[in-house]
Design brief:
Structural class: alpha+beta
Largest sheet: 10 strands, mixed
Radius of gyration: 31 Å
Strand content: 25-35%
Number of strands: 29
CATH topology of the largest domain: Heat Shock Protein 90
Protein name: ATP-binding protein
CATH architecture of the largest domain: 2-Layer Sandwich
Low-confidence stretches: 132-136, 491-536
CATH class of the largest domain: Alpha Beta
Helix content: 10-25%
Number of domains: 3
Mean pLDDT: 84
Shape: elongated
Length: 668
Amino acid sequence: MQIEIAEFGKMSQSGNSLLKLIQNNDLPILDLLVREAVQNSLDAGICVEGHDSVYVDIGIKDVNVPSFAKHLDGITDRLIEKFGVSPQKAIYIEDANTTGLTGSLDFKHSPNGNIFKLIYGISMAQETPGAGGSWGLGKTVYFRVGIGLVVYYSHILNDDGQYEHRLAVTLVENEKLPETIIPKSSGKVPSGIAWWGQRVAPVSYDTIPITDEAMIRDILQSLSMKPFEGKRLGTKIIIPFIDEQQLLIKHEINPDENKPWESNAVDYIRVAMQRWYAPRLANEKYTYGKYLDGHINGERLEKDDFLPLFLELQMMYNVAVIGSKSKRYFVNDIQIRNYFENNTINNAGRVAYKKFTKNELDMLAPLNGPSPFTCVNEKNPLGEQNAPLMAYARRPGMIVNYETDGEWCKGLGATEEHEYLVAIFVPNSITKLVNPDNDVVDLEAYLRKSEMADHTSWTDIIIKSKPLDIVEKIRSQILRKIKGSYENKEEVKEKQGMNKLARNVGKMLLPPTGFGRRASSRNRAGGTKLPTDIGSRGNSFTIVSQKYLDTGALEVHFQLKLAKNVAVFTIELFIASEGGKISATDWESADSVGTPFPAVITGIFFPNTVGLFGRSAAQKSDNKVLHAVRIEKNDVPVECSGNLIFTCTDPHVQVEISMKPEGSVDNG
């Protein structure tokens, strides 16, 4: 391929200035790469029909230096001399089900084509609805990953309806360094920018991407990559000559925690894709378009591979978008008045949140997983207690940022060492502004315009010479909702005298009406006597006492009263949550926790009840967990005692017991 060196001229960029254009010092380089590369791929898949997902694969390949360097006119010897002695690696980003680098090969005939925007242009506005940001600024991260050399390969349908392979190479370097790769020309100021391709014309100095399939296949082979075959469309960006150890950042956020992903780049990228794209990754319920079908080194990233925090964030994102009631999370509408065309209760969006225990986040032995702060590379500013963790994302599904202090967390207070408050806000993107600007007509556009080039924060902006405070009001509403939820809950607990109640035995439900009280599992000696409550229609289920057995199981002694015409009754275990009780079916659902139900009935006994009860049937969950027992009753009134024995595999959940009668309960 022939070289084209950019000339330094009026209003032109230099390599040095491009490398500094998006110098984000808050995020590690691999995080910036994943955020930018995946978003570009997702944007390129918006207009492609026939697929419900966008395929993205990020990984590392070997580089055959002599075979690769021979194709780069003007720098072949420099590359071999500098890198040919030792093994070299390249990071690649591959996407499919995308448009690819379309447009005229000669950008002068198609300045708005994708091929110009990604390879030859800078600071090009992204105009596709639902896209992530701007072309050009974010992509400069590619030049900072290796030595500034980037290979762009794409397989497209061209304007003539023919399949076409295209490949070009760019090099951006600091022209002020004493040793540069781009050849210097006598009497010319070095620009630090060069491209490789084929000449537009024999007499022209300008280059365009090559389309020679044999040459493209040879170049890709030198980078351990294969070309797209058949009708598969997409793009591969390959960044050779990386220093893997230099790319890895050893975070000292929580030095005692296990962070295996910081030992090699592939594992780091695997976690980074979850960290920033949890709402969209492997999420077939993503509602704003195609979900992200993510791969690492060719292997699909499944939900089973997620760290628990990121799986929870995806489920929280889903309930925030849909707005349905959740038994696992708090979900609150966020309403802002006077800025939007309508005043619906969720015109600004919704926030979902929950306090998670260490066990729910796999932090206890033997898993010893990382804390939420370690997962997102944020410090806990509160030391022994835990700061809240706030996330926010708009329509493209990339989490903009994680906040642990500042305006997003002001006044929320700390949680105790054993629990973590995690929240995610999802805006109502289609909400129209009352006084829109030409390119800011709805909340999505407002937030998109408020983001910096690296999309790491939302700030309020000025529209039509009027400063707005939409982001500030959203933050204020979120904080008010979260504080109100937990403050109200604590007030209810105090009124009911339940501040110190059990984690393993909770509220006893007394159908069809009335209810009992919780027993304290902290009293391991048992014998805690609770008053008997009678249901208003002759049925009651009341805890008398409870104790731990030597096996670790919990034995609950109860009093049962059933009317004559009750034919069948069921005693069932539930898990208490902030949003209500969770059944075994709901718990094991893929949309909920997705693990085996943690409470198992091991025995139920009714002494001195000969002739009162008939057959019993065990009810098991999909994971074969015995969570309920259905018992037939003869046509007589019953008043007896019983013992229920169960084990709980999760010491941090609160178990509820329910008794449900079936059949007529009319005592007449």
